[in-house]
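Hello Y.,

Per our agreement to keep a running log of every chain we model this quarter, I'm adding this entry. I've kept the format consistent with earlier entries: sequence first, then predicted structure.
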Amino acid sequence: MHADSLMPKPEDLMLSLRAIWKFARGLRHVFGGMWTIYVRFPQLSIEQREMRVQAWALQFLALWQIHLKVVGQPVRSGPALLVSNHISWLDIMVIHAARHCRFVSKSDIRDWPLVGMLATGAGTLYIERTSRKDALRMVKDMANAMQEGDVVAIFPEGTTSDGLDLLPFHANLIQSAIQAQAPVQPMSLQFLDSQTGEITSAPCYIGDDTLIGSMWRTLKAPGITAVVHFGALQQADGRDRRTWAHDLREEVIRLRDTSDGRLPN
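Predicted structure for the entry above:
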């Protein structure tokens, strides 16, 4: 085997160098966000904090060359529950960039280095998913947050999927909207190759994927477009949580499959 065959190709080397550069800029942005939470947030109103979070998320996407495309109109104000499919660790950043909301997330994220502080600063609600008792508490906390005017967001699949085949929607947390008499806004997420307009799996975080591997694929991608498609607000209209969860899943699939959610060829 020739030594030359072991050398990375110039184009691969360039992609790797660009990925490292984007990672460094993103890390600097993360530390800037932590500084804002520690120093600036205590002096800001809730509305000002939400604006800062949305602006920070938009800037992060730009640093990583991820273009945001929003289809439809996000709910203007709470109370409301956002329901979305779940593909990647990047989903929360993308949704925050499109519309600030309070996410419901598993409790161990609170202890993650850097990420936990950012999530908490953005108003995340934490749930112990293995505890039925904690799920009941979370339904109550979500309902209270919405009754106070918040927009709360959940991923009813409960875990990430490839975005092509959605997992069944868990109905438990949908109960919070019924309890708060709040509307639900279904929305879909897609990640597309900015050059071809085709679906890209670069940001996926499923199965045997590692967080580092998913991030590295995302960083090496020449350009990604994150498409967020907001649907119409829905009321329960007498549906129980299971029926409503099923109907919401069908609507998220419809939003994902609509031609408006894709880039032109």
